[in-house]
Design brief:
Immunoglobulin-like, 2 helices, eight-stranded antiparallel beta sheet, 427 residues, mainly beta, Jelly Rolls
């Protein structure tokens, strides 16, 4: 005997769609905890839950049971969506009514009238919980109430209270308004790290030598070495580029490139490097930073902060530039400044970095070279809410440094660095 389904298949020339039916039941474990049981039928692959309180789960275990905690009273729409092997779906939804509140999140955020850049945060949450933390300005402060939160610049800031109960996080956000910049913001920062180069050799706890003659992404001609091109002289780091031969090809010059990756990385603060620059056509020194996640996301996604670059064929002109996925290489966002004594004297090349902007300056924060502050920060234009490491190097030639050729009569040429210092807000 031929079944009705088989006859329908022969008539239509196709297989019947499989039948799947989404269904679930629930029961209360207590006033605020609900157990959900999947009762769907048919040959399906996965089940995706939305429990209506921000918690979602997807599983291929059809018998998996979920115990879900609802801290607040209210009606919650719970949805179960099942998916079969052919891509067909079916959905079931039910409303779950929670009658009582077990955990009522709340907090106060009050601007200190005597210190208008400080906000007093007080956790007023009702109910039992294991811990809590404040999240603001990409920082986290645990289990402190009241907590004095610092906001140095005028603007609107989101403050989040996260409460942990039964291993589950619950959160509440508020916006605080700061009406003025803190006039003592820069002076109030504290020195958190420096290299004064007062030892006999380069400090291996701070720096790693990158070596090789790969062109370094810019068709540069130097070979970076770990010896012979650096020295500590009178409390200063000296990086020297030397000529090896007259071929003007890769490896015709040696130099050094020091990085602090994995050793000294920082996020935000005031950064100052005191340096005296080399001179001559074809030389290309740089003091810069890159995101510590470069090994996982690559460049330019990691972000690049060029605190100072100098090309010898443009004497007495320094450059500060930012590179991001939204603008990199020749499309980087930067500015230039005339500095007539940069080859003869030490100058401070500085950066003020917070969650809103990058301010580049020379000698004093008032002497601004460039400001990078996107009106709307995105992943593409602001990869700077993460730690970054330092790079100090002197390149020879390359797409920018060698754009007008190389004068071989200038060598050897050295960049001298008196110190690298990092200041940050007091904790």
């Amino acid at each position: 005997m031929i079944s009705a389904i088989a006859i329908a298949s022969m008539v239509t020339g196709c297989n019947p769609e499989p039948q799947i039916d989404a269904a679930f039941s629930y029961s209360f474990l207590n006033d605020n905890e609900v157990r959900f049981v999947n009762e769907s039928t048919g040959d399906y692959y996965s089940a995706s839950w939305d429990f209506g309180n921000g918690v979602t789960e997807t599983t291929t275990n059809k018998k998996e049971v979920f115990d879900i905690y609802y801290p607040n009273a209210g009606n919650y729409n719970v949805e179960l969506r099942i998916l079969d092997y052919a891509g067909n779906t079916d959905t079931a939804s039910r409303s779950v009514a929670i009658a009582t509140a077990d955990l009522q999140l709340s907090f106060n955020a009050v601007v200190d009238q005597e210190k208008p850049n400080y906000v007093i945060l007080t956790n007023t949450t009702e109910g039992t919980y294991s811990s809590f933390k404040w999240v603001y300005r990409n920082m986290e402060v645990e289990n402190e109430s009241p907590h004095e939160a610092y906001f140095p610049k005028a603007g609107s800031y989101d403050v989040e209270l996260q409460v942990l109960k039964n291993g589950n996080p619950f959160s509440l956000e508020k916006t605080v308004i700061i009406t003025q910049d803190d006039p003592n913001y820069i002076e109030g920062m504290e020195l958190v790290w420096s290299d004064e180069f007062d030892g006999a050799t380069v400090d291996g706890d701070n720096w790693t030598f990158e070596t090789g003659a790969s062109g370094w992404g810019n068709n540069e001609l130097q070979r970076y070495t770990s010896s012979g091109n650096t020295a500590i002289v009178d409390g200063k780091l000296v990086i020297t580029a030397r000529k090896i031969n007259d071929d003007q090809t890769v490896g015709s010059y040696t130099s050094a490139r020091l990085i602090s990756k994995g050793k000294k990385e920082f996020m935000y603060g005031r950064i100052e490097i005191s340096a005296k620059l080399p001179s001559g056509r074809g030389i290309w020194p740089a003091i810069w930073m890159m995101g510590g996640n470069i090994s996982s996301v690559g460049w330019p996604a990691c972000g690049e902060i060029d605190i100072m670059e100098y090309v010898g064929y443009q004497p007495n002109t320094i450059h500060s530039t930012v590179h991001t996925p939204a603008g990199f290489a020749g499309e980087g966002d930067g500015s230039s400044k005339t500095l007539t004594t940069c080859e003869e004297e030490f100058h401070i090349y500085g950066l003020i970095w917070n969650e809103q902007e990058l301010i580049f300056y020379t000698d004093t924060p008032e002497n601004v070279t460039h400001i990078y502050a996107p009106a709307a920060r995105t992943e593409a234009n602001w990869p700077f809410d993460q730690t970054a490491f330092f790079l100090l190097n002197v390149a020879v030639g390359g797409t920018w440094g060698g754009a007008q050729g190389i004068d071989d009569s200038i060598f050897p040429q050295s960049m001298e660095i008196d110190y690298v210092r990092v200041y940050q807000e007091p904790k």
